[in-house]
Design a protein that fits this description.
Elements: H1 3-6, E1 9-11, H2 19-29, H3 35-44, E2 48-50, E3 53-56, E4 60-63, E5 66-67, H4 81-87, E6 95-100, E7 106-110, E8 118-122, E9 127-132, H5 135-143
Antiparallel strand pairs: 1-2, 3-4, 5-6, 6-7, 7-8, 8-9
């Protein structure tokens, strides 16, 4: 596991997704999720980061509320990645959300290009802001906040 992931405290993670749950999400969405994200979820699935602030160029400072899990957590009213994709209007079909911001905006993997960089989707204007090149870099930004 990357030391970078340990540089942030991840509160209240839920049990790691099974390989079958990961495969099901990838199959439904028609994507292969980044390997660093899958490795992260084996340890901190659904966790709430501390520190949680992140600077998004062109948008400003915002927060990461939590990592979106692979499965719904009904008792906590937490929606899975697939549930978010199905429920959120205006979300580009090549964006896969992996973290939610308190204002209802999402950090997503961008499948419009081959490298799946991380972007921030601002729902009020359906605007996409570049954040960084990988999930590991996303966690590094949180760690250095």
């Amino acid at each position: 596991m990357s030391e970078v992931f340990e540089s942030v405290d991840w509160d209240d993670p839920i049990p790691a997704p099974s390989q079958e749950e990961i495969a099901a999400v990838e199959r439904v969405l028609g994507v292969q999720l980044p390997s660093d994200f899958i490795e992260f979820c084996r340890h901190y699935h659904g966790g709430f980061p501390d520190p949680d602030e992140i600077e998004v160029e062109g948008f400003g400072t915002t927060m990461v509320n939590s990592i979106i899990p692979f499965v719904d957590v009904p008792d906590e009213r937490i929606r899975s990645i697939v549930s978010v994709v199905e429920a959120v209007e205006g979300l580009h079909h090549k964006l896969v959300p992996f973290a939610v911001e308190p204002g209802g905006n999402y950090f997503c993997f961008d499948y419009r290009s081959a490298n799946q960089k991380v972007v921030f989707w601002f729902h009020e204007q359906s605007t996409i802001f570049d954040v960084c090149d990988s999930f590991t870099e996303f966690v590094e930004i949180l760690a250095n906040a």
